[in-house]
Amino acid sequence: MTTKYSIECWILAPDQRILLLQVPARPGKHEAFWQPVTGGIEVGESSQEAVLREISEETGLRLAPDDVLEIATGLDVVISPDLTVSKTLYLARTPIPDIVTNPDEHQDHRWTEPERVPEALHWDSNRETWVMIQKHLAPTGTDHGA
């Protein structure tokens, strides 16, 4: 079995909306669907380097290392009997909600109210990580997010 390593990053705007990116349909494979920033970790790259690179490539945002917070690592998603994706999950905050999507990867984007995020997502694995992000964002008395 092959394991590929990737990042998934949920980006939070100042007004608390969440960025979703729309992957275009691939005839015979899948319909268009919404997801957070995702991408592979390249050889020799740390997960933090990968998340900053993917954010820049997919949104045009140039965030600093302090703008991203690692939430979890080693989140395995079995794609097939021969392939597992092991994700590192991040939360990022941006002071600027103006983004430019990369047309080679995404056909649209939207800032989504948190309560509307689950219904927009295509993949169960994204819904599961969204639950983790929500728990992190929920006020606990001492921790109010990233």
From TrEMBL:
Its cofactor is Mg(2+). Gene3D superfamilies: Nucleoside Triphosphate Pyrophosphohydrolase. The keyword Transcription does not apply. Keywords: Hydrolase. It comes from Streptomyces cremeus. It comes from the Bacteria. This is NUDIX domain-containing protein. Belongs to the Nudix hydrolase family. Pfam families: NUDIX. PROSITE patterns: NUDIX, NUDIX_BOX. InterPro entries: Nudix_hydrolase, NUDIX_hydrolase-like_dom_sf, NUDIX_hydrolase_CS, NUDIX_hydrolase_dom. Residues 2-137 form the Nudix hydrolase domain. PANTHER family: GDP-MANNOSE MANNOSYL HYDROLASE, MUTT_NUDIX FAMILY PROTEIN.
